User: Fold these one by one.
Assistant:
Number 1:
Amino acid sequence: MPFDNVCKTLAETYPSNFARWLLGDRGDCPGSDPIQVLKTELSLEPIRADAVTFLQSGDRILHLEFQTTPESNPPLPFRILDYWVRLHRQYRCPITQVILFLKPIDSEATQIDRFEAENTQHRYKVVRLWEQDPTPLLADPGLLPLAVLARTDSPEKLLTQVAEQVQQVGQIDQQNNLLAYAQLLAGVKFEKELIRQIFRRSAMRESVIYQEIFQEGKEKGRQEGRQEGRQEGRQEGRQEGRQEGRQEGRQEGRQEGRQEGERFLILRWLTHRFGALAEQFQTQIQTLSLPQLEELGEALLDFETIADLQDWLQSNPSEDRS
């Protein structure tokens, strides 16, 4: 998924969050008014751009344009004017237009905030995300993935903050989606190895669902340990058997919890990235050992198509003997 499309998905999933962020300094910023996502196809020779989002709050339209680079044909300033004319013709209401540049780039084109030609001048707002304070983005769940693109002197610290904030999101589906978006957007600025290091080990393994599964595994291990301990205790001494059984049970439960956690997160990630998985892929993943699941978890960050998953599974037949 291209970076600007990730942002479009975020804006259309959390329209109120974007409106509060970008219209917060206006007297007519959205309060309790519902935010409506407008269609991106406009009348006349239709323009349809994946990275364009139109939000309507009350009597104002917020036009968002996400760009990784300022290069465009026609040029961005003219495109923004063209959108304004078409929006104004159709809706006849105030329009706030914002270009959000995602990728740090040393270009004067990212400084341009108006269209000028003879007697015509049209202004709009430009946000260079790499100059933005990450604090308000970190504080808002809907904007969290954008925080990876904000200003920082320590990439590792910023990515860790984002990973930790994602863990605080209550709903599991929302948490997993935000985690996926944050990792994808981090690719705009940071090396893949750093992204893996922070998100795979900090966020995915410490996520709420992983901890729930891990705790379930531990509890199961305790129960099995008690049962096994009682059986061994009758044969070799009750106290010694219980102790040994508990230890083995805890270890088995911990192993099982980690394995189930890895499987769950990998299947959720792949489903989000490529859609519903064929049953054969789900079956193969279910039979992978824990070391193989960990290897797949690292490898899938580089997968671009479902064929990459198929090749990986063919090269790594199941070793699970549990």
Note: The chain has three domains: 3-131, 135-204, 208-315.
Number 2:
Amino acid sequence: MNFLALLLGLATERMLTHLFHLREFRWLDPLFDHHLRRLRKARSWLAVSLTLLLTLLLVAPVAAASLLLWDELLRIPYFLFAVFVLLFSLGPRDLDDEVEDYLAALESGDADTQRQVAQELLERSPPETPIACNEAVERAIYTQANNRIFGVVFWFLLLGPTGAWAFRVVDLMRHRVEVRAAGKGAGDTMVGEAPAAMGEAVRTLHGVLAWIPSRLLMLGYVLAGNFEDAMSGWRSGGPAISLPFTEGSNEILARVGMAASGRSILDVGNSAEALERIRGARSLVMRTLWMIWCPVIAVLTLYDWLI
């Protein structure tokens, strides 16, 4: 049931691009800001506990609705509800569309649009130099694929709409932390201090939820791309060893993705090379979703039905 809902949700998403702005859930920002302010002086264990409690409170209505609809009318209401929740848990912005906007701006030389889209992908101000910006965007495609798509899909398949919405709630909080850290939020004393003072609890919880899907995504990159280079990138710890938990996962995810694309060095003076690499990153993400994990999930679902 969840697999069919997943396929319908992913297919329907492409026809509802005009509703993507509703998935940003801006009305939750004041609640997240209030929560972050409460974490200012809280100890680490208490901060994580309070963040988990807030997540459970926001997820409870979806969990209750799922339980109520589970055995009703041959589970048709549950199926429709699951598709609806999945549609609003993916994203919030469409990764493929944003990458296409960046490529169009890069080809046309529209530096303003290029930096604007890069800022959305990076969730911070992009590097000043074009080569550094292009490389940062390429890395962000591999990591945002987990935040926007694969993390949601994994928890949806594991726990249904409750799992998908739980991951989205935590990712929305994490995004709010990054917005505050970059100084792009509404003016108050929180701007610029979120990561050190308040954001670690949110980042830790997000890192826990994202850890398993990120490893499965890396496995997909390995299978869908250059196997030997990707495995070499995965085995070598690199900077990820000394980075915090969440940042370390993002670092290795980006490194494996770049290695799987078959390119490790960016041509500093060649915009055509940058275009090819970014297109390759998008293609690898889509191949991993549709050619690796969707067939695997389908086989597992069929096996479950047969037994």
Note: The CA atoms of residues 9 and 15 lie 10 Å apart.
Number 3:
Amino acid sequence: MSTESKVRGVKHLVYGHRQQEGGGFTVRRPLPTAGLQLADPFLLIDELGPVEYAPGGAIGAPDHPHRGFETVTYVLEGEGEHEDSAGHRGVIRPGGVQWMTAGAGVVHSEMPSRRLQQEGGRMHGFQIWVNLPRRLKLTAPRYQEVGPEKIPTATSADGKATVRVIAGEALGVRAAIDTHTPIVYQDWSLDPGADVTTALAAGHTGLVYVFQGAVEVGELPQPVRDGQLAVLGDGDLVRLRASAPARLLLLGGAPLDEPVARYGPFVMNTAEEIHQAMADYQAGRMGHIARG
């Protein structure tokens, strides 16, 4: 059996669409779309903004439940405040990440910071949903809050490619965040002339989402432009090139290969488990956010 490495090509492209979520904020969503309902283990990719809020105009996602998966919030600009039914509270600042394992169930609120709500300002970031395997659907909720100073960063030898490693490993640095299943989540910034190759395990789902400029992906370069999500083919390497400034997320994960039943904020394996999640939430078994 050959052990020769192979650079992944682009299998197909998906265009992100804009829609309203939460209290009425707009997201650009490449997953799920009509052309791509699931990229196992990834359930959802939302780009939040960028948006410029006037004083008093910032909106977010008030109290809502989750069960059976993980939400990963990554702030590029602005500030987000959160609180939940387990008593956690915090602020996510630019460059910071909150990796929340909802597990058995939690009610939480995600809002622009009070300062941003009062003074206005620019907000930009991502929320990604990562599925949990059947054995962890009802695990205890867990939070990992990592400030920008704790997100490892590396630069290519020629200085033209920089990566922030939220999950996984790239250019010799490893993420501080622990994941239940193998996950890659990287924020790449490419300067003109950048040409960088990074590993992504064979057999894992591979995605490239470009949110600034355009990137050429693969040995036979396939352009991927702002707002497009590239689903990668087989291989164990990803090659990225740019002729102008560009920025992208590189995502990867081990497929769970399990049935997916989803309804709004609940993701389980069967319809019966979804009905149970709804009943548990309605009965208050996921708790309530305590406020003074």
Note: The longest helix spans residues 271-282.
Number 4:
Amino acid sequence: MNNQLQLTEEMSAGPARLRVDVYGGEPREHVLDDLSFLNYRLADVRISPEVTLSEPDIVWHQDGEKGIAYDGHVVRFSGPWPAGPIQKVVVAILALRMEAAGWHPSHSAAVNYRGKTFLFLGGESNHGKSMGLIEAGVRGGLQVASETTVIDEDGRAVMGSVEPFLVKRTEGTERADKAAPNRGVEKFWGSMPTWGMFEGTPNIDLVIVPAIDGNFDRSANELIPFERQFQFLHSLQNYFLTNELLAPGHVMPLVDTDELRARRATFVARFCERPFYFIRAATPQVLLDAVEEVL
């Protein structure tokens, strides 16, 4: 095995930092050539101009048999891996570092609309947050976040992803079951609308768990505390890939712990003191009609 260090690179997202060391194989300029997925998932990921961390969080030996392991401190890749699985691990580790700093990535869109800021929460099912965001924008709402809303301990949206859709999936993350996002846009609006962006770090006033399906009759129900926490915890756990394959025969290592989960549950309980509504609707337009009634 070639043990020559080819690259040490540091990435950051908000207050979180992560170091990757790459050994063996061909020399490379960066760990990942395209950061679009990382920015889609964690709002604003940057390659640091210099390495400041004394120890790596991810080590990749490009030679040898393909494998992945985690010892509680470092994720170790070995062998040939496409970019997709590596970027997923980068997201998970950065999300843990963000949590340690009191910033919580949430699988949700956020919009400032009629004087209030609310989430369209992905929750357990993820049925309509992007479509809801677009319709809110059509009606004059300002986008706070698209795919991910980063929430601090006080319940403020401190950072948010910009692009409403992931346009390109990297090798190793292709999904035939994911419909092309432009199809929903064509169906509901004809062409992609435009909308403004909100400046600042607004407090989140309430949360909408949407369910858009052409067969649904409209309904809106305020959620009880258990349902609120159940749905919101799903949106936080989304970043740790506890139920995903990285590649055939290789699962994501368990980077979560009981201690971290307990701390996360405490934050969830506190955040979920604000109102939560589950809204079923046939279209994004009907969804926003119902949202306007609960604001």
Note: The chain has seven helices and 17 strands.
